[in-house]
Design brief:
With about 300 residues, the chain is an alpha/beta fold. It has helices at about 10-20, 35-45, 50-55, 75-80, 95-110, 125-135, 160-165, 170-180, 270-285, 290-310, and strands spanning about 1-5, 25-30, 45-50, 60-65, 85-90, 115, 140-150, 185-190, 195-205, 210-215, 225-230, 235-240, 250-255, 260. α1 (about 10-20) links the parallel β1 (about 1-5) and β2.
Length: about 300
């Protein structure tokens, strides 16, 4: 299999993972920074180019991995699919619903596939809860609360940006479990420049799902994620706190009428699992949990939330 990676920022990490997985025969990396390209060439033995058309014209390339700014996702995805290649996009699928729909429509018309790096789908604690919900291990899920809190480490995450750039994975997790829902109620505010808090409640016929995010945590606080899920016959909670100095505090627990149980967490690189999923899905033509159509549903939920925040 021969693939291409567009971008030398986070794209460099994707290259590292592809080399580790070992299912790729050849990798071509496109970028504008010739020094970074040379570093990747020397470190991983990849081919490099500063001309994107070289990749589009190469009929032996079957997959284009797009690690570029969100605003360029649609343009590059459409060009790649028009050239007969499948596409793997860093999240989000696109910046707007219209751009997302154009990408998915182009995939349908061209017969190509679109994958989006929604890595929670390969994160053990979230896989555990997804199985509990789908198989009703503790009866039906009646309430879900998901959170994500960060110190100011990631640039501008004000009210207008936090949905797409911080809440995306958690909203996708909700849509994976329950679908789009009937309505969303949202409140949010900027706490200080580039830092905000937002709470979104997604309504379903027999449950609610709340997604809370804060980009206004102090520098001394951890990057924190987690969830609490109320079932008919049980309660599941998970948290993970990662500190700037490398400390990690995490736990997954289940409570039922008869017992309290701590579930052993399987620690693995979910990004490696994402890249493996994409490669195996392309090579073996099998379904993937990173499907672009579902990513479009998530994008629509985020855009609806943003409209509510803007009072529209």
């Amino acid at each position: 299999m021969k693939i291409a990676v567009l971008g030398t920022g986070f794209g460099a990490y994707h290259v590292e993972l592809y080399k580790k997985i070992g299912l790729v025969k050849e990798i071509v990396v496109w970028g504008r920074n010739t020094e970074k390209l040379e570093e990747l060439k020397e470190k991983f033995g990849v081919s490099t180019t500063t001309k994107c058309e070289d990749i589009l014209k190469d009929k032996s390339i079957c997959l284009v991995d797009i690690c570029m700014p969100n605003a360029l996702h649609k343009e590059m995805a459409l060009k790649a699919m028009a050239a007969g290649k499948d596409v793997f996009l860093e999240m989000p699928l696109a910046e707007t619903e219209e751009d997302g729909r154009q990408i998915i429509e182009a995939a349908k018309k061209s017969g190509r596939r679109v994958f989006v790096a929604l890595f929670l789908r390969h994160e053990f604690a979230y896989e555990y809860l997804a199985a509990a919900v789908q198989k009703e291990h503790f009866g039906k899920c009646r309430e879900l609360h998901v959170k994500r809190q960060t110190p100011p480490w990631w640039g501008n995450l004000d009210v207008s940006r936090i949905g797409l750039n911080l809440m995306h994975h958690d909203i996708d997790f909700v849509s994976q479990l329950f679908g789009k829902g009937k309505a969303v109620h949202v409140s949010g505010r900027n706490v200080r420049e580039n830092q905000s808090v937002v709470t979104a409640v997604f309504d379903y016929a027999d449950k609610n799902a709340t997604v809370y995010a804060s980009s206004a945590m102090p520098d001394t606080s951890p990057f924190s994620v987690g969830y609490e899920a109320v079932f008919e016959n049980g309660f599941v909670r998970y948290y993970e706190d990662r500190y700037a100095d490398g400390r990690l505090d995490t736990k997954l627990e289940v409570f039922t009428a008869n017992k309290q149980e701590e579930v052993a967490l399987q620690i693995a690189d979910c990004y490696e699992a994402v890249c493996r999923d994409v490669l195996e899905s392309v090579a073996e033509k099998k379904p993937s949990v990173l499907d672009g159509e579902h990513a479009l549903m998530t994008l629509e939920m985020i855009c609806e939330m943003n409209r509510k925040l803007e009072g529209k």
